[in-house]
């Protein structure tokens, strides 16, 4: 089982600390979602002028970069050109780091009908995916925001080049937000799922939910892992510890090693 974490979980860590801790805790890879307060990673010296040294550091620690997590929302019409430029930057980084995936969001559909939103998502994903494909990279649409339901993601996937786009199954969102059974998600999206985000939560009595350490909530992570293994999934299990957006969550030096221990105990 290949383990990774997104840097959303350690918003205050410098690159050296991220690499050192990832190796020390027994991770296989890091998924970059921002660093040192900058969400557009390619703007940082460590991922532009100094990128060769960064690659040496990461490889030297025995790690890979499992994914570059972009901020791109594919449905957005206003930001299409900026999003396309962002994809190109991440695609270049992917080919430099030998990373196969760029995460994208579907985003809010606003006042579009679902059919219009699907058509827009398909068109934009095709255009952005073509850029990614030039670099041998695939865009992964995350089961998130207005694209959490497997039926909505499937409607898009059926119409795009499978070499240019696939699915990132956030194990939490379809289950927690919609009560989607994991078997249902897999039955719809299995052929497109290349990557997973792992997180846990429990429902609060007053409504809503609370994120918690994996294994301490009621997301059926154990049976999800069994399902994925039985179906032949061999991609990463990436902890998405949303410390950046929820500062009250436990520090990464608690959550990250706990995650490795929890995941290793599943198999
Ligand atoms: O990358 C992000 O910003 C992000 C935020 C919240 C989520 O639930 C998520 O899956 C990703």
Question: In words, what does this structure look like?
Answer:
This protein has 267 residues and is an alpha/beta fold. It has one domain: Divalent-metal-dependent TIM barrel enzymes (TIM Barrel). Helix content is 40%, strand content 20%. The chain has helices at 15-25, 51-60, 80-97, 114-134, 150-157, 173-178, 182-189, 221-230, 252-266; strands at 2-6, 29-32, 64-73, 101-105, 138-142, 165-170, 193-198, 200-203, 209-212, 236-239. The mean pLDDT is 97. 3,4-dihydroxybenzoic acid is lined by residues 8, 33, 69, 144, 170, 197, 240, 242, 245. InterPro entries: IolE/XylAMocC-like, Xyl_isomerase-like_sf, Xyl_isomerase-like_TIM-brl.
The sequence of SSEs as H and E is: EHEHEHEHEHEHHEEEHEH
Oligomer: single chain
CATH C-level class: Alpha Beta
CATH architecture: Alpha-Beta Barrel
Strand order of the largest sheet: 1-2-3-4-5-6-7-10
The value of Rg in angstroms is 18 Å
Listed once per kind, the bound small molecules are: 3,4-dihydroxybenzoic acid
* DSSP helical segment count: 9
Distance N terminus to C terminus? 8 Å
Tell me the strand percentage band: 15-25%
Find the structural class using helix and strand composition.
alpha/beta
The largest β sheet comes out as: 8 strands, parallel, barrel
The percent range for helix content is 40-55%
The domain count comes to: 1
For the secondary structure, the number of strands is 10
Query: Which regions contain 5 or more consecutive residues with pLDDT less than 50?
Result: none
The CATH topology label is TIM Barrel
Globular, elongated, flat, extended or rod-shaped: what is the shape?
A: globular
- State mean pLDDT (0 to 100 scale): 97
Q: CATH H-level name... which superfamily?
A: Divalent-metal-dependent TIM barrel enzymes
Keywords: Lyase
Protein name: 3-dehydroshikimate dehydratase
Domain Xylose isomerase-like TIM barrel: 20-250
EC number: 4.2.1.118
């Amino acid at each position: 089982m290949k383990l990774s974490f997104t840097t959303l979980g350690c918003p205050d860590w410098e690159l050296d600390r991220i690499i050192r801790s990832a190796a020390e805790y027994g991770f296989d890879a890091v998924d970059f979602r921002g660093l040192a307060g900058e969400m557009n990673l390619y703007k940082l010296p460590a991922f532009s002028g100094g990128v060769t040294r960064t690659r040496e550091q990461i490889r030297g620690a025995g790690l890979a970069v499992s994914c570059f997590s972009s901020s791109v929302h594919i449905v957005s019409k206003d930001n299409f050109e900026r999003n396309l430029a962002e994809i190109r930057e991440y695609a270049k980084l992917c080919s430099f780091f030998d990373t196969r995936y760029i995460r994208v969001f579907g985003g809010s559909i606003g006042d579009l009908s679902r059919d219009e939103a699907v058509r827009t998502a398909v068109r934009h994903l095709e255009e952005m995916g073509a850029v990614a494909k030039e670099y041998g990279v695939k865009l992964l649409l995350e089961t998130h925001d207005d694209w959490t339901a497997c039926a909505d993601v499937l409607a898009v996937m059926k119409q795009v080049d499978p070499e240019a786009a696939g699915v990132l199954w956030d194990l939490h969102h379809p289950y927690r937000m919609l009560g989607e059974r994991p078997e249902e998600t897999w039955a719809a999206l299995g052929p497109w799922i290349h990557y997973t985000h792992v997180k846990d939560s429990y429902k609060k009595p007053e409504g809503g939910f609370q994120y918690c350490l994996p294994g301490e909530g009621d997301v059926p992570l154990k049976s999800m892992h069994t399902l994925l293994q039985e179906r032949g999934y061999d991609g990463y299990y990436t902890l998405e510890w949303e410390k950046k957006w929820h500062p009250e969550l436990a520090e990464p030096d608690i959550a990250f090693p706990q995650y490795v221990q929890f995941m290793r105990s599943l198999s």
